[in-house]
Each structure stands twice: as C-alpha cells, then as structure tokens.
Specification:
alpha/beta; 15 helices
C-alpha cells in the first residue's frame, strides 16, 4: 500500500494516473472525505479527462461505502460545483487536474457553502486518516442521484453581473477543449447575447481530454496563440481563455496582447470598490504593486496571502474581502461564496468594458505602472538554503514572509522568492518602475542563486 501520499498537495489532490494516483486511492479518498466531514450527502463533478469517469466512479464508491449519498453533477466546470455547494449547503468534490496535461488527474474539494478544504482546513487531516486507515462505513450503503445544475448556475451568474446596458461587444473565447465551454454556454445563452449585443466567437469549446488543439493552460503564452490570432483577424474587442476546469480566466486585449492578472485585479478591484467603498481586496503575495495602488486610491484595504484556491478562500473569508485575485488567473467574489470562477470573472470584464467607449488596451493603461520580470523557475538543490542566502545578502532591507520571501527597496522595486511545493525549484518574481531596473535586480538575484551552488561563503555578487 502506498504510504507517501505524494498526490496530496497543499490545496488539492493531484498526480499522474495511474502511477501516482489510481482508482483505489480515489475510492479511499472518497471514503475518508465523508468520514471527516460526517456528512450524509456529497456533490460530485468531473472534468473531460479520459480518466475522469472511472475516477469519479471510484470516488462515488468510497462515499457510498460510508453510507452517504452521492449527488452526481456529471461533466461540469469546477465553479458549477462551487455553485451547487453554496446553493445547497453541501460539501463537494471535483475530479480534475485543472491545467495539467491529460495524463494527470486529481480532486478539488470544498466544504458546504464552497468553504475551503485545503492543507490547514482538511487535507492534512485527510492524509492522517488515510495513513491510519478509513474506518468501516455504515451497514447500509449509500445511493446515487443525478442533478443538472447548468441552468441554475447560468441564472446565478447572470444575476450577479447584469449586462443590461452598454455598447455591443465581440469576444473570442477559447476553452482549450476543457469544460469552460460548458460554463460559458450556460451563462452567455442565446437570449443574453441577443439582449446585450454580445457576440461570442467560440474556440475549442468541445470537451476533449486528449486536448487536440493545445493544452488547457493559458498561463503558458504559446497556448494563447490561436486566441490572439483570432482576436486580431476578426477585429474582436477582446479574447478570453479558460483553463481545463474553468476556474481561471485569462484576457487578451483588442490587439491580441495578453493582459496580466495583476492588471485585471487592479481594474476590477477598483471598480468593485466603487460599489463597496472602504472594502477589502485580497491578493496573493506576488501580485503587482499596481493592485495596491489602485485599491488604496479608492480608499480600500489590501491584504496579501499565500497562493492557492483554498488559501485565498480562507483569506477572503477572514477579512470579509469583496474581491480577490492571484497571479495565476484566479478571481474570487464575495457574493459567490468567496469562490473563484472563470466565467464570472469574464462577465465582470465584459460588463466593465461595455460601460466604456474606449478599447480595452486604453482602459487598462492607468493600471500598468510597473515592469514585472515574469515568474522564473530555477532548479536548486535546497530551496530553503537559497532563500536564506538571498535574505542574508539583503539583510538590511525590509521584508515579509507572507508566501516565501518578499523584499523591498526604496525605489519601489521588490522581489518575491519562494520554494516550489512540488519540485526542486525556487520561483523568482521581480518588479520595478523601469524595465532596466527589473533586469538589473533580476540578474543580481540570479547571480546570488548561481553562486549558492558553486561555492560557500561570500560571492562575487556581494561586490
């Protein structure tokens, strides 16, 4: 029996199928989930991956062994599971590996009301339960029922973001053959498109776990190529891409240029504060300072936390934040049970742009104030030693440890260096007021990391 449980990550379950995660693992996880929550009913959804139907069956078997009922939502986006959890006050699970390649799969969880079930909120205890062995279930096995939440989910999202007024828009949407096409079709139905004057040009809307067009990972620039080209070719106002399970949203402007998540956070956060004066906006630790500036200029408060959907949901709840976001394209909404939703974020973008008579690139110009390096991943032998070495080099600079090391300079330059959760690398993000300063600081830190491997003691980078 596998004892490492390496498939349990900080905020979900994920691994190669079947080498790291197989049907027996998933069956036991389903049983342990029900046992921990002591619930009589569990919502279950799945994505389009080839392995998802059989893993969903295995999870369902584990739940029913404990005497609980499985409410099978079928093929859905993960935000449909969150919707059902919020509307029905039930815990839920989604069989998905999000943006990972097709050979991966996993499980995302939530407690009732879409509350998080992450490292400190359930996954650590789940691991301990699996180690000890899941107690036998009740004598009578549970049952399975089917529920289609598509229509109710679409109604919910449309109520949250009215599109009744504004200019017509043409938007290209790329679902990457994930389940984002299901969510987008549920929300942007024929009546809404007609009444709001929104034309949707769909790309890769057919769910296909073989990913025949490109991986469903819009965080990688090459996976946006088709979307960017179609926006320019058709003269669309913008493009939107979703990841595999559709909890993330990526945007390109009318020129086909990608919009950073931090820029969207700053814009949407600013607009949310117009309706909720003095509210809190939550972001992950490496979000751009442009978000801080936008929030403070509107009289709001910014809180920073660790990346990952379970951590961000906890941060949202703790501070009663009205809106949240992280650099990987997740956006969280208080009225959606603090959960993230790709199509809900996209609808907010459409509504905001409809109120403008300018192109998206011009609308966003005031929120682009810093020059980011982009995230760099550097292979190392000991991430903790590397981070400590870099901190020692800049010992006289202010810093915090919200999620790894964030260190600040007088000229408003700053960087984040943190150890990856699942591989022997450190992640570096640098941001400054100018491109030259970003490059200079980035190269300086890379030099420190390189010398950490080649010799002990002070390095030439100290000079």
């Amino acid at each position: 029996m596998r004892r490492s449980f390496s498939y349990i990550k900080p905020y979900d379950v994920r691994g190669l199928v079947p080498d790291e995660l197989d049907e027996e693992d998933v069956r036991r996880i389903g049983a342990a989930f029900v046992h921990l929550l002591d619930t009589q009913k569990v919502l279950l959804g799945r994505d389009m991956r080839v392995s998802s139907p059989r893993l969903a069956d295995a999870f369902s078997a584990g739940v029913r062994e404990q005497g609980a009922e499985v409410v099978d939502l079928g093929l859905v986006s993960v935000d449909m599971v969150y919707y059902a959890s919020g509307a029905m006050a039930l815990p839920g699970a989604m069989i998905t590996a999000s943006h990972n390649p097709g050979e991966y799969n996993g499980i995302k969880f939530c407690r009732a009301l879409a509350a998080p079930f992450g490292a400190q909120s359930g996954l650590d205890t789940l691991r301990e339960t699996l180690l000890r062995g899941v107690p036998d279930g009740r004598q009578e096995p549970g049952t399975t029922s089917q529920l289609d939440v598509t229509t109710d989910f679409g109604d919910c999202v449309r109520r949250l973001v009215p599109l009744s007024a504004g200019r017509p828009l043409r938007v290209v949407m790329d679902a990457g053959n994930g389940v984002g096409g299901l969510a987008a079709t549920a929300v942007l139905d024929d009546r809404l498109r007609r009444d709001a004057g929104i034309t949707v040009d769909p790309l890769c809307f057919e769910p296909d776990g073989g990913f025949p067009n490109h991986p469903a990972n819009p965080l990688e620039l090459e996976n946006l190529t088709d979307l960017r080209q179609r926006v320019v070719e058709t003269g669309a106002d913008l493009g939107v891409a979703f990841d595999g399970d559709a909890d993330r949203c990526f945007v390109v402007d009318e020129r086909g240029e990608p919009v950073t998540a931090s820029t969207l956070m700053a814009w949407l956060g600013s607009l949310r504060l117009d309706k909720h004066p003095g509210a809190v906006v939550a972001v992950n630790a490496i979000a751009s300072r442009s978000v801080r500036d936008a929030v403070e200029e509107k009289g709001g408060s910014l809180v920073r936390g660790r990346a990952g959907h379970s951590f961000m949901k906890e941060l949202m709840s703790t501070h009663d934040a009205v809106f949240g976001g992280e650099h990987a394209g997740h956006y969280y909404f208080r009225e959606f049970w603090n959960a993230d939703s790709g199509i809900l974020a996209a609808l907010h973008v459409l509504a905001a742009l409809r109120a403008q008579d300018r192109p998206l690139s011009v609308v966003l110009e005031p929120f682009v104030r810093y020059h980011p390096s982009g995230e760099l991943s550097i292979k190392v032998q000991s991430g903790e030693q590397v981070v400590r070495r870099v901190r020692e080099h800049y010992h006289d600079r202010p810093c915090d440890w919200v999620d790894g090391l964030s260190l600040y300079f007088e000229d408003e330059s700053w960087f984040s260096l943190r150890v990856a959760n699942t591989e022997p690398v450190v992640r570096l993000n640098v941001e400054s007021r100018t491109e030259s300063r970003t490059r200079q600081l980035r190269d300086e830190i890379l030099c420190l990391i390189e010398h950490q491997h080649t010799r002990p003691g002070p390095s030439s980078c100290d000079n």
